[in-house]
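Example record used in the benchmark description.
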Amino acid sequence: MSPHQPILETLRTLKSRPAGARRPIAVYDLDSTLFCTGPRNLAIARAFAEYRHQLRPFVDRLEEHRMGWNVMADLEALGFADKAILEELRHFWRATFFTDHFVKMDSVYPGAVELVKTVQNSGCLTYYLTGRDDPGMRQGTLEALSAAGFPLPCENVILRLKPTWEEEDLAFKTQVFEELHALGEVVLAFENEPANANRFHHAFPGATVVLHATIHAPNPEPLDAGVHVLPALAGPWIEALALQ
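Model output (structure tokens):
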């Protein structure tokens, strides 16, 4: 079976939902699900290398589409071994990655905009649920969504960010499940973190939960058998979906 088939089948069922059925909801994570953070990480590494010139030859070898979850690990893999400078970079990264300025540097995964728009046209409420924080990243996130052509917050589109930077991502998202239950019926959920995808699968057993197989935090928990793995968003399946 095509990895996209569960999504197609889920959207086909929307056409036969009985009158008065609860509103269908599609939930999307942002970082490493709809947006590729490689360009953001590369920009941060380049900015830091302006202060630590020893890094420049290694940073110049980084490729944004091959960046992993941890830019420090990317540099170590290229042979940079100065632990003190890598620790400085870690602090610099933490101070810059979660900011309006750098978040706008993300690229969009091919097919992401088309997916969200097509699912929205099928009657789903679009719900962006992200570990980005409201105080530090809302404006940059809105600008990035707009620039890419994603549906923007309105009556049919919700953007939910963490209230504080310090709050742990998974704890925040599971707290939002009650709100999602009250809004309608989650029929689709897209994530890149196995732990998050598993929690969606447990909380919304009737939903099609999709893991976009990009990058994720180290040492992930095993993925539930009921979570569907999607290697890429783009493809002719979206055109087929749009024609349904």
